[in-house]
Model the fold of this input.
Amino acid sequence: MPIIHLEKLLKSTTGGALEELVKQAEGMDRLLAGLKEAVGPGLASRLKGVNLRPDGQLVVIAETPAWASRLRFEAETLMAAARGGGAEVGSCKVIVARNSPDKPGQ
Done:
């Protein structure tokens, strides 16, 4: 079996599942960057991730419950920013990131 470098797999133009996964990840990175820009630097650092579900629900992942509450007030701004980037968004849900194993209790 030949050795295939990871970079070659990730930049494949065969249209396979891996290429689709990479495109989705790049899209989520762009979406997250757009949302961070929309809410400004104070809240941007508290955004930990984003997902866009097939039903049009924008899921925003916040650092802590307190920041999640603050981001919920920005739901319209977040949805507008996502729509501005071309996403079809119908609703917004803000959830809290789970504690990372190396930082218990934070």
Strands lie at 47-52, 57-62, 91-96.
